[in-house]
Design brief:
heterodimer, A: 113 residues, mainly beta, four-stranded antiparallel beta sheet, B: 113 residues, 11 strands
């Protein structure tokens, strides 16, 4: 069974630009969550999608948004990039809701210059 | 305000001995706790979890203890093996795992041969 796949793995953007990251969950998993990992703040919850609907949202500004498609694939978008958005963005899927047992991808490393 | 704290950034243990990783939380709404392990260049991997209705959960060499009155949990690894060298994250959730996970900043466990 293929794991969680995230693309692109690495990308460099400049301040003010926008970026879209993609995530394909494990086959059969309908819940997809996104987390931001930085050295200073650690892993922080962004949002969770299930059946194309946002279930939960973390404490991030509106510049961070996401969506989920009918095939459970998910994208997250960050608009008007700031230097502080440089981070590893991790996507995770889960087979059963509300277990917290997440299967993470390898992440997308975003650098904002 | 850090709601989940792992106060030891790193821990060195001899192979074969017990590794004890600690985690404290402040949010009394947390009722579900998990440990994740992370190797470099990989996403975190779920290790073990515990619900607040229990005070102990075992899975092979891994045991998690929960002390609700002290708002403290610990992960015991016995015996420690070289492959256990990784960063360990403590995570917590409210509503039995329905909320997004709040992670600690991690403890880097190094198993010395």
């Amino acid at each position: 069974k293929a794991g969680v796949t995230q693309t692109p793995r690495y990308l460099i953007k400049t301040r003010g630009q926008q970026v879209t990251l993609s995530c394909s969950p494990i086959s059969g998993h309908r819940s997809v969550s996104w987390y931001q990992q930085t050295p200073g703040q650690g892993l922080q919850f962004l949002f969770e999608y299930f059946s194309e609907t946002q279930r939960n949202k973390g404490n991030f500004p509106g510049r961070f948004s996401g969506r989920q498609f009918s095939n459970s694939r998910s994208e997250m978008n960050v608009s008007t990039l700031e230097l502080g958005d440089s981070a590893l963005y991790l996507c995770a899927s889960q087979a059963y809701l509300d277990t917290g047992e997440l299967f993470f991808g390898e992440g997308s490393r975003l650098t904002v210059l | 305000d850090q709601q989940v704290k792992q106060n030891s950034p790193s821990l060195s243990v001899q192979e074969g001995r017990i590794s004890i990783l600690n985690c404290d939380y402040t949010n009394s709404m947390f009722d579900y706790f998990l440990w994740y392990k992370k190797y470099p260049a990989e996403g975190p991997t779920f290790l073990i979890s515990i619900s607040s209705i229990k005070d102990k959960n075992e899975d092979g060499r891994f045991t998690v203890f929960l002390n609700k009155s002290a708002k403290h949990l610990s992960l015991h690894i016995v015996p420690s093996q070289p492959g256990d060298s990784a960063v360990y994250f403590c995570a917590a959730s409210a509503r039995g795992g329905a909320d997004g996970l709040t992670f600690g900043k991690g403890t880097h466990l190094i198993i010395q041969p």
